[in-house]
Amino acid sequence: MSSSPLAIPLIVLMALALQLPSVADLLTQDEVQQAEALLDKQPRTAESVALRGEIEYRKGNFDRAGALYKEALGMNAKTARAHYGLGKLAIGKLKTKQAIQEMMRAIELDPKEPLYRFYASEAWALEKNYAEQRKQIEEYIALNPSDPDRLAEAKAGLEMLKALGNDVASVDAPQNPAPIPLRKSLNLVFARVMINGRGPYEFAVDTGASQIVLSEKLAGDLGLTPVTSTIMHGVGGGGKIDTKLYSVKEMTIGDVKIKNVPVGTFNDPLVTQLADGIFSTAVLSDFILTVNYPGNQLEISRKRPAANPASEVLPAWYFSNLLLVPVQVNGQHRGNFIVDTGAVTTVISHNMAATLGVDEKTPGAKIDLGIAGVGGFEGVVLRVPNVTFKTAKNSETFPQVVSINLKEMSKMIGTEVAGVIGFDFLDEYKLTLDYYAAEVRLTK
Question: Which of 87, 92, 91, 85 is nearest to 65 (CA)?
């Protein structure tokens, strides 16, 4: 009996009807566990190995991710997703030329994949080639990606680039800038900042802020006109809000002047009571920065400090203007933590709390405490007792720490954030940030 050309197998019809998402689709939706489960059922090919590398990247296992990307290229040198993965790892270590090379190779192999364009724009931005950054953002938008948050970010970035031109956040500073006095209050450090010749204004100095932000009141007082709007992320629950973006002609902190600065805004009433704005140290990433807690000053240098046996050098990863370092929790659980002078306390994610045996169902774990920030606040807050954070040379033990939802923050960065190192960990150290060496130093 001859078969009819219409006799399509039932399982195929069901798959077509359901439009089952691919592993790549699930990763775009940040459904990492589902993506991994689906990938486990697929044959081992260069593409599947590269996707497994992406899953390890999302988990924060960067060395394992790099090994898988290279394995995929060994199987097929034209695996675009493997080149893309190596490009993201290069961005994380601020190896800009390698990042650009890998991203452009991924685009050459698969010009229709929007994500490659998005991260290529980030690589070109690190090279300060804003014309090429703008081109890649335009290509990303034209490909009509399905990620609404990232698309909103791209459109806002394009509008800011049009407004600022090719001279974005340019820094003018003397050869040896004088230390900038810091004031401690409520587990934060503050510095005085001038804006367009007016001020000084009180800004929290924040290594955990991806960009400079002003209170909406200050933006109004300065007569700033919005350029565009976007979604801004921060710690605490949903952790994202719509925000207006502005262009500031000049900001001055100490001896340092920064021109054509893109800034966001916030209207959180608690934060507004404490500060006129949040100063992201990433804007000064061309310098070596030391937040000297014992000395109450921010030190800026063009030279890396000499080797100091009292210092611990932590390898860092750079994502979305933030620095993440590996930390051991209770001796056996490893995670990547944001180094955040703008966090009043050290916190862990709900995922990390779960590995320590604490979740919403744990008796006495839930507490009525709002965690506020420029990205909004909401969600469940948990109490986790007896937690020790350890690096190779230093450790800090707390009778209890707070656990909050860091899912949106992890999604923004593109990899799992296990927690945030805050004031109560850092306040006895000199904290040195070397962005381009991708290192953080702790000196007691």
Answer: 85
Tokens of 295: 């000395």
Confidence class for position 378, pLDDT limits 50, 70, 90 = low
Q: Convert the pLDDT of each residue in 335-358 to its tens digit.
A: 999 999 988 899 999 999 999 999
Give the CA angle between residues 272, 410, 436 to the nearest 5°.
85
Mean pLDDT over residues 7-13, rounded?
Answer: 46
Name the percent of the chain lying above pLDDT 90.
66
DSSP reduced 3-state for 100: helix
Residue 418 CB burial class (10 angstroms; 0-12, 13-18, ≥19): buried
The pLDDT tens digits for 255-281 are: 999 999 999 988 777 777 889 999 999
On the 0-12 / 13-18 / 19+ scale of CB atoms within 10 A, 130 is middle
What are φ and ψ of residue 177, in 5° steps? -60, 140
Other residues' Cβ atoms within 10 Å of the Cβ of residue 84? 26
Name the burial class of residue 25, with classes exposed (0-12), middle (13-18) and buried (19+) by CB atoms within 10 angstroms of its CB: middle
Least Cα distance to 375 among 326, 342, 348 occurs for 342
| Gap between the Cα atoms of 109 and 252, Å rounded | 44
Q: Which long-range contacts (CB under 8 A, 24 or more apart) does 105-114 make?
A: 105/80, 106/80, 106/81, 107/80, 109/78, 109/79, 109/80, 109/83, 110/80, 110/81, 112/143, 113/80, 113/84, 113/143, 114/140, 114/143, 114/144, 114/145, 114/147
Q: Are 260 and 266 in contact (CB under 8 A)?
A: no
E strand segments, 235-364:
240-253, 256-266, 277-280, 288-292, 297-301, 311-315, 317-319, 322-329, 333-339, 347-349
Confidence (pTM): 0.90
- Distance, in Å, from the CA atom of 412 to the CA atom of 435, rounded to the nearest integer, reads 19
For tokens 């690096």, name the residue.
Answer: 391
The closest of 88, 87, 47 to 68, measured between CA atoms, is 47
Taking alpha carbons only, the member of 262, 145, 137, 171 closest to residue 210 is 262
**303 in Cβ contact with 436 (< 8 Å):** no
Q: Which of 85-94, 189-198, 235-244, 355-364 has the lowest mean pLDDT?
A: 235-244
Backbone angles phi, psi at 223, to 5 degrees: 70, 30
Helices and strands per DSSP (H, E), number in the chain = 15, 23
Report the 10 Å Cβ neighbour count for 271: 21
Tell me the residue type at 384.
V
Q: In 3D, which of 92, 90, 46, 43 has the Cα closest to residue 70?
A: 46
Q: Which residue type occupies 153?
A: E
